[in-house]
Structure formats: C-alpha cells, structure tokens
Amino acid sequence: MKRDIREILNELEPKGKALPYLELDSMMLAQVVEVAQRVSQNDINSTHVQNWVRRKYIPNPQKKKYNREQVANILLINDLRNILPLEKITRLLAFVNQDPLKTYDDRVNPTKLYRYYSEIFDRAMDDWLKSLQGLEKEANDALAGEDLAPGDRDKVATTLVVLNLLARANLYKEIAEHWLEGINTGR
C-alpha cells in the first residue's frame, strides 16, 4: 500500500481532544474555529460558523463569545456537514435538543452529547484500525494469484481498499439516513 493505514489514522486527531476546550465557559469565534480544526477532518472557518448562526442552527453568541453548548453543537455540525445536508443535521440534533436556539427543552446538554459521541468515536478507532488492516490483507490476498508487476500490484491493492472504504462509507450513510428518516422530532 502507498501509505500504511496506521500512518493515516495517526494524522487524524482523535475527537476526544475537544473535551478540555469544552470546559471553558466561553470562546471567541477564532478559538472555536481553531478547536474545530483540531478535532475534525472537515475544513472550517469563521464564515461557516457565522452562516450557521445566521441560519439559526446555532444561537447568536453573547458579546461575541460562544458558550460550551454552542461550541459542542458547532463541532457536531462540522463533523456531519460533509455527510448530511444542514437541514438533516438540524433534524437529528433537534431529536434530542428540540430548538437549537433554546436550552430549556434539551433532553441532554449538547456538551454531554458531544462528549458521549467523542468517547464512542475514540473507542471505535482501535476497531477501525484492525478492520482497515484486515481490508489491506484481503486486497493483497485477492491479488495473490495475479501476475502483476510489484508497482502495479500496489496500485491495484490500494484501489481495492479505497473502493471498499467508499462502499462501506456509502452503506453506513444509507443506514444512518434510514434511521434519520424514522426520527420524529416532535415532543
């Protein structure tokens, strides 16, 4: 393989690194963006956050500062926005915290929701590493009988891994969207 799966995963910072920052009472927009950049694979900038505030996905900051609940929701939205449209993300978050602009109707504090999400994600990283290493082995095993030049073998094996990763990502997305369709955001 061109790059070892472990090397790629090591470049991705675990989601749990956001938790110490969520202990702060509030953050300026630049700090929020910095935290989001450290814990997400998605690009984010201040325009994204300002757009989410303008579209009422996140409450307006108080005195230009975002509280920890707002930061948690920003981190969740940012993690999901390449997978789901913002309207679906809002629908999902509204399932547990009905109105994003109010806190009195929250079934769980957004900071706790993000913490639980991060803990589950971080624990799954070990399983993903084993699964991805297994996928590399399966690709190489599938090519065992092929008479390919060493460089060609590596390119074909890499392509097989990427194809399978994309197919799995699509399957996971389809499963999540089916669950999302079944979510009733009503009380």
Number of helices: 7
**Unreliable sequence segments:** none
Question: Could you give the distance between the termini?
Answer: 50 Å
Strand content: under 5%
Q: Can you summarize the main beta sheet?
A: 2 strands, antiparallel
Please list the strands of the largest sheet in the order they lie side by side. 1-2
Shape category: elongated
Helix percentage:
55-70%
Count of distinct strands: 2
Structural class: mainly alpha
Alpha carbon gyration radius: 20 Å
* Number of domains as seen in the coordinates: 1
> Order of SSEs, N→C?
HEHHEHHHH
Give a description of the structure.
The model has no long low-confidence stretch (mean pLDDT 83). This protein is mostly helical and 187 residues long. It has one domain (5-182). Helix 6 runs antiparallel to helix 7 (150-182). A two-stranded antiparallel sheet has the order 1-2. It has helices spanning 5-11, 29-39, 46-54, 68-80, 86-96, 110-142, 150-182, and strands at residues 26-28, 65-67. Helices cover 63% and strands 3% of the residues.
